[in-house]
Amino acid sequence: QKEVEQDPGPLSVPEGAIVSLNCTYSNSAFQYFMWYRQYSRKGPELLMYTYSSGNKEDGRFTAQVDKSSKYISLFIRDSQPSDSATYLCAMSEGSNYKLTFGKGTLLTVNP
Amino acid sequence: NAGVTQTPKFQVLKTGQSMTLQCAQDMNHNSMYWYRQDPGMGLRLIYYSASEGTTDKGEVPNGYNVSRLNKREFSLRLESAAPSQTSVYFCARALETGVRETQYFGPGTRLLVL
């Protein structure tokens, strides 16, 4: 079993829709959870960062972590065409310098 | 570019040729990383450097060497390129303490090995 599983999509939604992106993981030692956004032919950019369980909101983006279920989510409200990108989840134990990434979900928001 | 610059942007090599990918950060952070990204494989860590003067292997180090020249620069060398090394290579930096796992990526180098 891979440490981090992420549905690769592709996911296509109309503009204004609520988008839910998810990752599951198997390593209970993960404490730090991140979401990166990657536009085509660009480097990943940090979108959200959370520590342990709970929710974090930043504008139209909400990150949720449920450590008991080993499940993390990213919600995008009022999605825009500019949100079209690949979204990567990433996580770390915090005791080393390594991130473990999901393979990414390709999202297209149609005008 | 999140304070990370990578050169070159694109390179074509023939099998057996060598080259060095350059990475520099302007944020004075201790940790730097090299990843490769392949379709369907996600981001895989090649090498990382937790601080100046130290380097460690990641998930896929074979065929690569690294040099942490100083705090600012971290280079990746392919001594004898193989077609399997065709990929997009990303360098990243990370904050020193607390949220050191929060990594910031450069724009990438696209490498094609024929």
Q: What is the succession of H and E elements of chain A?
A: EEEEEEEEEEE
Oligomer: heterodimer
The helix/strand class of chain B is mainly beta
Order of helices and strands of chain B: EEEEEEEEEEE
- Name the poorly predicted regions of chain A: none
Query: What Rg of chain B, in angstroms, do the CA atoms define?
Result: 13 Å
- Strand runs of chain A, count: 11
Distance between the termini of chain A: 38 Å
**Mean pLDDT across every amino acid position of chain B:** 91
Low-confidence stretches of chain B: none
Tell me the β content of chain B.
over 45%
Global structural class of chain A? mainly beta
Topology of this structure?
The complex is a heterodimer of chains A (111) and B (114).
Chain A: E1 4-6, E2 11-14, E3 19-25, E4 32-38, E5 45-51, E6 54-58, E7 61-66, E8 71-76, E9 85-92, E10 100-101, E11 105-110
Parallel strand pairs in A: 2-11
Antiparallel strand pairs in A: 1-3, 3-8, 4-5, 4-9, 6-7, 7-8, 9-10, 9-11
Chain B: E1 4-7, E2 10-13, E3 19-25, E4 31-38, E5 42-49, E6 56-57, E7 65-68, E8 74-78, E9 87-94, E10 103-105, E11 109-113
Parallel strand pairs in B: 2-11
Antiparallel strand pairs in B: 1-3, 3-8, 4-5, 4-9, 5-6, 7-8, 9-10, 9-11
